[in-house]
Amino acid sequence: MTGREQINPPDWMTSADTARLFGTLSDAGASVRFVGGCVRDAVLGRSAKDLDVATDAEPNRALEILGEQMIRAVPTGIEHGTVTAIPDARPFQITTLRRDVATDGRRATVEYTNDWVEDSRRRDFTFNALSADIDGMVYDYTDGITDLNEGRVRFIGKATDRITEDQLRILRFYRFQAHYGKTDPDPDAVAACSANLGSIQALSGERIWNEFSRTLIAPEPSQVFELMEKSGLLRLLLPVRKSVSRLTALAALETMVKLAPDPVRRLTALVQPDRSEASQIATRLRLSKEETRRFDDLSARCGETSAGMNDVALRRSLYTLGPERFRELVLLDWANQIVMEPARVTEATAAWKETWDKAASSTPPEFPLNGEDVKASGIEEGPDVGEILKDIEEWWVEQAFRPDREDCVDRLRVIVRRR
C-alpha cells in the first residue's frame, strides 16, 4: 500500500536549479522525483548534502532531454543508469528507475523500469526507499516514514536477502543505527548481519572505510560500537586491541569543548595503536595519504600531553606540533586517562580543562629568522643554512620563545664567528 506525507519543502527542493531540472524532464514526459537520503533527511528536518533524483527516462534519453535545454549533463555512471546534471551550480545525480535481475554480493545486473514501487523495493532500508516530488509530497511504499519517525532501522523484506545482494549493507546497517536509531536494534537485522560477517572480507578497504568513517562520527557512537564489538564485526575490521570506552570518552569531550567529530581522531581513540599497527590499519582501510599521515602522527604522539601542563611545555608543544594537532592530542590523552584512571576523573578534570583552554586560546609564536637571514650573514646556500637555522630555533624554543629578532640575530653572529 502506498503511503503519502506532505512535508514543508526545504530550500533545495524549491530552488531555481531544482525547478529548471524537474521542469525540463517533466515537460518532456518523464516522471521525476527526489530519492534516498535527501528525502529521508528532509522528513526529519535535517540538511541534505547530496541530491539524488530518479526518473523513468532511460539514461540516453535523459541526456538528450537535458541537452536540448542546454543543461550540462555528464554520463558519470551511465552503465548503471546514472548521469549527473548541473543546471547552474549544484549537481544532481539522476538515476533511471531499475529492478535487479541478478546480484553477486557486490554489484547488481539491472533492467530499467517505469515502476516506482519496484525501484523502491530494491533499496536497502525502508526509510531509504522514500521518494518526493518538487512540492514536498513524499511517497512511501515500505512504511519507511513510520520507521524513520520511530528511529527504527529496518531492512526492506528479508534482511538476509538484502545483505546477500550487497555485503556492504552490514556496515550500512550499523552506520544508520548510529545516526538514526532510537530504539533497540532490529533483532532480525542484527542476526542477519552476524550470520554474514564472513562476507565482509570480500569488500575493498575503500568501501569499508567509506561506511566505517561515517559510523565513527555519529553523535553518540558507544551503543553501536558495543554492538559491533559483541557481534565480532569490530574484531574482523580491526584485529588489534580496541577500547570502545575511550571512543565514548572522546566523543563526550568533543561535545563538551564544542569540537566537531573527526573519523581519524576517533579511529585513533578506538584503537590507539602502536606505529606498526597504525600502518597496517591505514593499509587495510585504504586511508588517503593525508589521513594516513594524521593517523600515524596521532598514534605515535599519544601520551605527549598532560593535565595542567606548565606554560613553557605547553608553548613548546603548540609550536612543535601545531595548534590543531596539539589540541587533538590533548583530547585523546584526556580520554585515555578517563578510561585508565576512572578514580581520578573528577580530580583531573579541572587540570585537563585548563590545558585545553590554554591550547584553544594560544597562538604559537613565529620564529623570527629565516634562511635569508643566515645567507645574509655570509653563509653560502647549502645544508649549513638549515643546520644553523635549526640550531638557533632550538635555542629559541628552549628559551621559551623570549628572545626577539635582535637576540636571534646576535646568536646567529656568534655561531657564524665560531665557524
**What about the largest sheet?**
8 strands, mixed
Radius of gyration: 27 Å
Assign the CATH architecture of the domain at 1-150: 2-Layer Sandwich
Mean pLDDT over the residues: 92
Which parts are unreliable, with pLDDT below 50 for 5 consecutive residues or more? none
**SS summary, helix count:** 21
| CATH homologous superfamily grouping of the domain at 1-150 | Beta Polymerase, domain 2
At the first level of CATH, what is the class of the domain at 1-150? Alpha Beta
Largest sheet strand order: 1-10-9-2-3-6-5-4
Q: What is the third-level CATH name, the topology of the domain at 1-150?
A: Beta Polymerase, domain 2
What distance lies between the first and last C-alpha atoms, to the nearest angstrom?
88 Å
Instruction: State the helical fraction.
Output: 40-55%
Number of E strands: 10
Shape: globular
**Strand percentage, roughly?**
5-15%
